[in-house]
Write a structure and sequence with these properties.
Blueprint: H1 5-27, H2 33-40, H3 44-47, H4 49-61, H5 65-71, H6 74-93, H7 98-126, H8 132-160, H9 164-184, H10 198-204, H11 206-216, H12 225-247, H13 261-290, H14 296-301, H15 304-324, H16 326-347, H17 353-380, H18 387-413, H19 418-436, H20 442-452
Helix pairs in contact: 1-7, 1-8, 1-9, 4-7, 4-11, 4-18, 6-7, 6-9, 7-18, 8-15, 8-17, 10-12, 11-12, 11-18, 13-17, 13-18, 13-19, 15-16, 15-17, 16-17, 16-19, 18-19
Amino acid sequence: MVLTEKSRKWFVGTLLLGTFTMSISQSSLSTAYPTFMRYFNLPASTIAWLTTGFMLIMSVVMPLSPWLMDNFKFKPLYLTLLINFVVGTLIVIFAPNFLIMMVGRLMEGFSVGVLFPSYQSIILEITPQDERGTVMGTVGLVMGSALAVGPIVSGVILQVMSWQAIFGFFLVILSAVFLLALKTVVSPLKLKTTHFDFISVFMSLGIIGLLYFINEISHMTVTSYVNWGILIVSVILLYLFVRRQLKMPTPLLRLDILKIGNFDLGVALTSLSYMSLITITIVMPLYYQQVLGLSPFWSGMALVPAAAFLSWLNRRSGRLADRIGFKPVIAIGFGLFIIGWGGLLLLSGLRNIWVGIICTMIVEAGNAFAMMPATTLGANSLTNDLIPHGSSIIATFRQIMGSTAIVLATVILGNGNFNAVFATFLVMEIAALGLAFMIKDTTAQRSAYATQR
């Protein structure tokens, strides 16, 4: 299907508005944990499952995205995901207890998990390759800004309303997106009916077990036999999943594309960038509260300059990548990460809020130059028919590494060892900069892979 420039902009705009709103739901609840603890009379470890469970279900359904896009028209798929999210949100709002609320959150997570790789695949496939950097810069604006804005939105709402209003906010916007999607969203791709591999889906449940283990590390001991057992079973399932995907003629997920040089670098660099972004949005509010003595509201508001700077830079970094190439832009991004984390490490002892705000802005600026350009780099190394598989792989790895970053930062932080967190992520991004210099010509990589196939 050929789209006019106007219809393509409306189509992409609708996708991004819906995704932005759903993305906010991923990070918005951390500010509201104390409120939920009082409302349900539950400890923080239990309330945290509102976010952990959401991320677990997201991760396990991401590999299903390529199959869904091959076998269902995109418009009804997108509308179904919106409806599922809205129903889940209604369940959360009217939940009589925490268990029912969790059901609603898992429904929301399912929609987000399928949508994240799907909408990126669609946008990449309908965008000419020489314009992808700019368009994916806008996608990065949506993803990065939503992650940073989530705690701010919930913090502001909780100042004047109940926690249900946070979900009411999602409900109103997504209802409007649904009506808009009826007019603007189309199904631009041809269907390719394929067999649904239940065995692969079962094996992919190892992702849930792995993420569960990662999230429980900080609470475990050597004698936590159940958790160690979950890890062993999960690793076995994931090994079998990978082996099955590499041997099947029509796999659920084309893991063989990780052999493409630039694609595997795109996966790694996107993940490393996301790890810094999600860590800075979690660690800095704690720093502002525990070290500088700010209230939760003002600790959230202190993230606004960085979120605004990230939003402003994303499209500009994408346009720059289209103009001068992805390698120098990505290298700039990881250079900014190094400056930001290094600044926090060297200057945090000053206990000055402006030092924290400026360094956070530099870290999030690094994300603008690194994450979506790296994602686009990976996509450009693939043929169009492989882009859904590539988007799903990148999204799944990014989610797993994001969860790992949260646990890593939490364990290292302990009772307030912020400098150790800053030093850890500084070293990690120095290593990432080395990977950025290994990027090769995308066209050559894609042609070489096509010849091999």
